[in-house]
Amino acid sequence: MIANILDGIVLGLQFGLLATGLTLIYGLGGVLNLGYGQIAVTSAMAVAFAMDAGIPTLPAIGLGLIAGGLFGLLLDVTILRPVYRLRGEARVLLSLLLTLGISFIVDGYLNWRYPLKTLNIYIGGAIDILGVPMRRGSLVASAITLATITGLFVFFRSTSLGRAIRSVIEDEAGARLIGIDPEKMQRLILVLSGVLAALVAVTRSMVVPVDTQSGLSITVFALIVTVVGGLGNVVGALLAGIILGIAYVVAASLIGSYISLIILLVAAAVTILIRPAGLLGVKE
Fold it and tell me: What is the pTM assigned to this prediction?
């Protein structure tokens, strides 16, 4: 059981970081990106191809992070332009439709062109944690995730740019009045979310292989964690990620991964019924 809980924490940290990117996009621009998993997979493939070309692992990872950021930027300057001109439910619905279309296109191309391609960054060895041997790959992935989460908190709380982004999330009209450009902040968050998606794909590949069919599952997990944690709430996303990660791994060891996914979906549905704003979301 201890081993399952530790594995669940590793997975939960990745869930939380994944949902953070998704919830930042929604909190800042009211956009729900259903192509988020495809950004992660595309970035993973960029890393895999770079490594196949003989580029060392760390520079290849850097190229993958750049690819994720560029994917986010591309979405911002193309299909999301008409989305930003709308408000309220119309913006959310149009963003759902357009990003869902992008996910189908990217999935279809990758599965057609590179059906067997995977990214698997192998880190050998194990270290005992509470008497349980933990793979070095899992520990490295967790350390990278924790460092990134810490960096995000410092960025949003201690830098002028981070505070500007928070002000747009809290009050877009008020932010405009004090000279902050919401469009520039939205673009920055799209790029940042793309980098976070790429980083999740890279850290995930240190634990299990990431293939061209992983996009849908990544998006589904991100949505579930975001809903449970609270749309637009970063701390809620991280908390929900850890809770659901532990629940998923423990349930998978007892009843199988398919039923575990259903349990997560039920958890999301119950959250919507009992607390629509999520664990730490604020009721409007």
Answer: 0.90
